[in-house]
From TrEMBL, chain A:
Protein known as: Uncharacterized protein
High-level lineage: Bacteria, Candidatus Komeiliibacteriota
SUPFAM superfamilies tied to this protein: Thioredoxin-like (SSF52833)
Chain ranges passing through the membrane: 154-181, 193-212, 218-242, 279-304, 324-348, 360-378
Superkingdom of this protein's organism: Bacteria
InterPro entries (UniProt xref): Thioredoxin-like_sf (IPR036249)
Keywords for the protein's UniProt record, in alphabetical order: Membrane, Transmembrane, Transmembrane helix
UniProtKB/TrEMBL annotation, chain B:
CDD domains, sorted: TRX_family
InterPro entries noted in UniProt: Thioredoxin-like_sf, Thioredoxin_domain
Coiled coil: none
Stated name of the protein: Thioredoxin domain-containing protein
Organism of provenance: Candidatus Komeilibacteria bacterium CG11_big_fil_rev_8_21_14_0_20_36_20
Length: 386, 89
């Protein structure tokens, strides 16, 4: 029955937009509210909409759709997105007449914008019987100052830096870079050393960026489906358990040697590329090598990027902000590689990061992964920051 | 006593151990050490059955019999203690 109602509402909406646009036959403004269970911004917006409904009850027609448990409602949201030519990957998502509002910061900001637009609609349809004096607070839009920033708004950047470092901090995984540095140190041309090593690191970062962007888009595409979140929660639990196992098992802090055949193949390739006389050929070779090596390594490190992408999707962020966070994650992910490279290039001596620290990174990383896994499965709203 | 050190240029633990051994060798000039590279000295790697973990340090007595084998990063303090204890073996 509800499916039919949803479908009917959707068709009605699609038809009504080009024809009447703002109001229904009874001159009421349609408001469609898409929300998800456990989403704190949705809860805030719901309280605001309740107030709005009682204030303008003569003029508006408010309808709510829960999208995380009801796939029909989720589908309806996607259709709305298509119709409005907008991204509907996040909730709360509110449609007022022809306008839409993604996210909800506070009554004073997003709420004010919604009410202001609604008032203009009601004025057009002659429904605004409110005392304009009551709306003066709309103009008092409060912009959060730096002093008002609370711990929650800081949580996502902190988590990003933390996970980036933990994901990247694996001295044993640095073997390709270390071998490359050992080859570069044998060269006389310092400029060539910097460019070849630097392009290896930058290409590695770009490959990882693309990999994480792919995860992000996959999770955005799958949307707010509960089982996807639970599946990623299980991946986090598995990853956490593996990290803890590594901590308890590798007590002697030794690096495992990568398979002879694979290692020799990569080393031969590095030797060949670095010794190329033509700078352009060496430069191209290094980039191709970085792509190939990192593509193989990516398969081994799918856990944390997937989990982090899911956390990003849970948070109400713009597309630009999401990619910005991925860039921050990758900067900290590559930090140890950059340090080792820069120190080697400046001192002309190779430095290794003690594998002992890597053990502790496995311990902390394992615990964090377990916590995120549990939260994703049971309390995902705790991962919605700010 | 003799110490055989097995490592590789691409192994961070081996790089960490390098300066520690330089100091130890300076402090104990009588100590005989030999370094073998995992990629270049494959015969020795096979002979001493070096597994898939690096670095490895093998302590040999005067008869070239293996006294002790350490795998992974070892502190300078621990190494000095072992060397002093096994000096006459």
């Amino acid at each position: 029955m509800f499916k039919k109602i949803s479908f009917f509402l959707f068709c009605f909406f699609v038809l009504i937009i080009p024809l009447v646009g703002l109001a229904q036959e009874d001159n009421k403004v349609n408001i469609y509210f898409f929300w998800a269970e456990g989403c704190p911004h949705c809860a805030k917006e719901e309280i605001f909409l309740d107030k709005l409904e009682s204030k303008y009850k003569e003029g508006i027609n408010l309808q709510s759709f829960e999208v995380s448990r009801d796939s029909d409602n989720a589908r309806l949201l996607v259709e709305f997105g298509k119709e409005l030519h907008t991204d509907v990957s996040g909730v709360p998502f509110l449609v007022v007449g022809e306008e839409h509002f993604t996210g909800f910061l506070s009554e004073e900001t997003t709420g004010a914008a919604i009410e202001s637009y609604l008032v203009s609609l009601l004025e057009q349809t002659g429904q605004n019987n409110q005392n304009s004096g009551e709306n003066t607070w709309l103009e008092n839009v409060k912009i959060p100052l730096l002093g008002q920033v609370n711990l929650k708004t800081f949580s996502l950047p902190v988590l990003t830096v933390f996970l980036g470092i933990l994901d990247g901090f694996n001295p044993c995984a640095m073997w390709v870079l270390l071998f490359l540095i050992s080859m570069l140190l044998g060269m006389k041309d310092r400029c060539r050393m910097w460019i070849l090593g630097g392009s290896f690191i930058i290409t590695s970062a770009l490959v990882y960026f693309l990999f994480m962007a792919a995860w992000l888009n996959l999770i955005l595409f799958l949307g707010l489906i509960v089982w996807v979140r639970i599946l990623i929660g299980l991946v986090a639990l598995g990853g956490g358990a593996l990290n803890l196992r590594e901590f308890f098992k590798n007590k002697e802090a030794a690096c495992k040697v990568t398979g002879d055949e694979k290692r020799r193949r990569i080393f031969d390739r590095i030797k060949e590329v670095v010794s190329r006389r033509s700078f352009i050929l060496a430069f191209g070779g290094i980039i191709l090598l970085a792509v190939a090596v990192n593509m193989v390594e990516l398969i081994c490190s799918a856990g944390l990027p997937a989990v982090y992408s899911q956390v990003l999707v849970l948070n109400d962020l713009s597309t630009l902000a999401r990619y910005g966070y991925i860039a921050i994650y990758i900067f900290f992910f590559m930090l140890d590689d950059m340090l080792v490279f820069v120190i080697a290039m400046i001192t002309l001596h190779m430095t290794g990061i003690s594998t002992k620290y890597s053990r502790y990174s496995s311990l902390i990383g394992g615990i964090i992964m377990l916590i995120i896994g549990i939260l994703l499965i049971f309390k995902h709203q705790w991962l919605m920051f700010g | 006593m003799k110490v055989l050190k097995f490592g590789a240029v691409w192994c961070p633990g081996c790089l960490v151990m390098k300066p520690r051994w330089v100091e130890i060798e300076k402090e104990h000039p009588w100590l005989e050490t030999k370094y073998y590279d995992y990629d270049q000295d494959s015969e020795k790697i096979k002979e001493y059955k070096i597994g898939d973990k690096l670095p490895v340090f093998i302590f040999l007595d005067k008869q070239a019999q293996e006294l002790l084998r350490l795998v992974g990063e070892v502190s300078k303090k621990e190494l000095t203690k072992i060397i002093k204890e096994s000096k006459d073996k």
